[in-house]
Amino acid sequence: MIRINTNYAKLQASYLFATVAKKVAAFREAHPEQEILRLGIGDVTRALPDSIVAAFRRGVEEMGNDRTFRGYGPDYGYEFLREAIAANDYLARGAKVEASEIFVSDGAKCDTGNFQEILSADARVAVPDPVYPVYVDSNVMAGRTGSFRDGRYEGLVYLDSTEANGFIPALPETPVDVVYLCFPNNPTGAVATREQLAAWVDWARRHRALILFDAAYEAFIRDERIPHSIYEIPGAREVAVEFRSFSKTAGFTGTRCAFTVVPRECVAADAAGRPVSLHDLWSRRQSTKLNGVSYPVQVAAAAVYSPEGKRQTRAIVDFYLENARLIRERLSGMGFACTGGDNSPYVWVKTGMESWKFFDLLLEEAGVVCTPGSGFGRCGEGYARFSAFGSRESTLKAMERIEALELAREVG
Ligand code: MLT
């Protein structure tokens, strides 16, 4: 009989957000009368702004007319979108990124999960703890780890992000080839300063390591001193790949559009130690396995950069940031120690009890869904993540219900 990829057998039974969804579905079945308030998965709830919908429609209309119809698009995205990204997200912030270095895709989840494919099977990988589970699971699937023991996979290097270090992990003390970083961070909401990012770039250059930088939440940065891109740090082009997404920036979680930047200077070694361009390898990988993103979606994504698109998407991000501020303020008022929630849509909360116990308590007693911190790693035990992507009404109602539980304590 055909055998499976046995690395899959090492994975935890289900993906974190699938486990949460299963628990919520079971609760809903048992209590159909209870209104459930979802502050768990980071999924947007506000509609696409009208300037983006209008562009989306124009794209669809073109597809419905023989004269303007398009078949397969360019493998790495239409030039109009790549040019708009390079100009607005990078050049406007003083970071040099060429349109040709941008690879448009259907999601940062896929890109952060897939990128490891072009790296050697024995690459030594470091991840922060807590961490977005995709970075870990994709490396488990690829066979870069041993078994899961005591909340961690053997063979991975875990970089603790704790209260003690302000949720910014220290540089690795053991040899590492690749490190995943995410700022503003999912799940802790922490942001890295220019100096902190510069220390990572300097480390990567000294150790000839690669930084896989997930900037999916950069649109939530409001503090002008915080870099939005790793390429705002001199020298990063040689050692960093950056992942971005329209999901949280412009409400595209269901529409699907993202991009990855692989600068031409970014190289890794082949078996003989000769430098090979990661840009060329990722081009090869994407043209083999992806046929791009649909034309109307790319037209809609390009509209994010129009003056009206910028204004409207910023207003929606501001709306979520206000939710985050309210969550943080109300939970802090109840005595919970909180981090994140400014420059970030996530609030990371010290629960004073085991994460899953807190999750169950909130679900069963208040009908409120959060994400248990331990699902993001061992250092997440004792924490929960609250997402600010709900409506104002459900966010406030959730806070009222948690207040009514009178969990009040000084947790910290
Ligand atoms: C989350 O809740 O962490 C996000 O929805 C994850 C994602 O964007 O895939």
Radius of gyration from CA coordinates: 21 Å
The CATH first-level class of the largest domain comes to Alpha Beta
**Widest β-sheet, arrangement of strands:** 2-10-9-8-7-3-6
Strand content: 15-25%
**Could you say which small molecules are bound to this protein?**
D-malate
Low-confidence stretches: none
Span between termini: 55 Å
What is the CATH-assigned architecture of the largest domain?
3-Layer(aba) Sandwich
> What is the average of the pLDDT values?
96
Instruction: List the helices and strands in order.
Output: HEHHEHEHEEEEHEEHEEEHHHEEHEEEH
Please outline the major beta sheet: 7 strands, mixed
Number of strands: 17
The residue fraction in helices comes out at 25-40%
- Structural class of the secondary elements? alpha/beta
Shape label? globular
CATH third-tier fold name of the largest domain = Aspartate Aminotransferase, domain 2
Assembly type of the chains comes to single chain
Describe the structure.
The structure is a single chain. This protein is α/β, with parallel strands linked by helices and 412 residues long. It starts with 15 loop residues before the first helix and ends in an 8-residue tail after the last helix. Helix 2 (50-63) runs antiparallel to helix 9 (295-303). The longest helix has 27 residues, at 307-333. The strands form 5 sheets. It has a 7-stranded mixed sheet with strand order 2-10-9-8-7-3-6, sandwiched between helices. A 4-stranded antiparallel sheet has the order 13-14-17-16. Strands 1-15 form a two-stranded parallel sheet. Helix 6 (194-207) links the parallel strand 7 and strand 8 (210-214). 48% of the residues are buried. The model has no long low-confidence stretch (mean pLDDT 96). The chain contains 12 helices and 17 strands. It folds into 2 domains: 6-47 and 314-411, Aspartate Aminotransferase, domain 1, CATH 3.90.1150; 52-307, 3-Layer(aba) Sandwich (Aspartate Aminotransferase, domain 2), CATH 3.40.640. The chain has helices at 16-30, 50-63, 79-90, 108-114, 133-141, 194-207, 247-250, 278-289, 295-303, 307-333, 355-366, 392-404, and strands at residues 37-38, 102-105, 125-129, 148-149, 152-153, 157-160, 178-182, 210-214, 240-245, 258-261, 267-269, 275-277, 338-340, 346-350, 368-369, 371-372, 383-387. D-malate is lined by residues 41-43, 109, 186, 247.
